[in-house]
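Here is one such protein, fold included:

. . .
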Amino acid sequence: MSAWRWRQPEKLVAPARLAQAPDSGEVRRFPCEQCGALVTFEPGSNELVCEYCTHRTPIDRAEGLIQEYDLEEALNWLSIAGPASERPSTQCASCAAEFDFDKHVHSGECPFCGTPIVEGTGSAKHIKPKSLLPFLITEQQAEDQFKRWMKGLWFAPGKMKRHARKDAGLSGVYVPFWTYDSQTNTQYVGQRGDAYMVPQTYTSVENGRRVRRTRMVRKIRWRPVRGRVRRFFDDVLVGATKSLPRKITDSLLPWDLENLTPYNEKYLSGFQSEIYQVDVDQGFDVAVDAMDSIIRNDIAHDIGGDHQRIHHADTRHSNTTFKHVLLPVWSAGFRFGEKTYRFVVNGRTGKVRGERPYSFWKIAFAVLGAIATAVVIMAFADESGALDRITNSIQMGTFG
């Protein structure tokens, strides 16, 4: 049994708890208990591993709850908290070099000696990560998934596939996300359309004569409607990074958020980790857009009928809560044709998504091949039809 469990979110949480970081802002190093060398987290396990003596150190699961925080209260607190301060330079404890991580990174390697360093977010951001999903997919497994993905790319230039396999170097990154829960109540005004059939008389010319015919025509009867729909949204996920396009981070769904574990810096050892670049209120705006599309489907279902028109919808959110989580992603990029293409691998499922170029010639040949196939089929059909007519004529004794 794990040391934590889910519970219903509290309606009010002391804002100060948002700022109680699970880190102090100091540089963290994790020495091997056996030889003193620095250890790193091994994906798919719950252990830190020493690459020199192979000693393994279990990571104790932190006790505590995966807490939801009240969004309105947090926004009120942030409005008076003032801007966050800049982080000081990082000093490597192994080689004493002083350097700066990218401003949105707080875990990685020393650029001079390669020592794995986990730096607390300190006061760089007011809201701290409180939970994460550790890596399950290893670097080798992610690379294998990438190769399978490359093989399945239709219409990709052949040179690109060969070049990408050589050029793509994977980096494990914990990417920041927001999750939002919200109870919605929507009042709407619209129209319901019910289809019905009516007979219609028309005139046509047949064998040189004008004749009257009757056909059934589909009509729609509209009537005004108004109503209310309710829906509770649980864990609407929004990427809080600008390092990757949102269309890529969104495409990595689904995530097994039910397996979130309380934040522990040891899971970051040997990996990069980003600080959020999309603020919690900006993330909620993105979440609202996602909720609205689902709510419109709910309204259409509530209106019923064969067709629906939604003229106005007013949605109220209540009991809105959020979490700040870190999710594991293997990320890489390659250059081809003077352009950089990025791809990512879900560090839990191995799902691959990314950008890719297209080969004009492969597409053109495919189109020409499709046209040629269609022409052959049509010609064969014509010949078969002619042959059938000749056969029927012979059987009826009328041929010749």
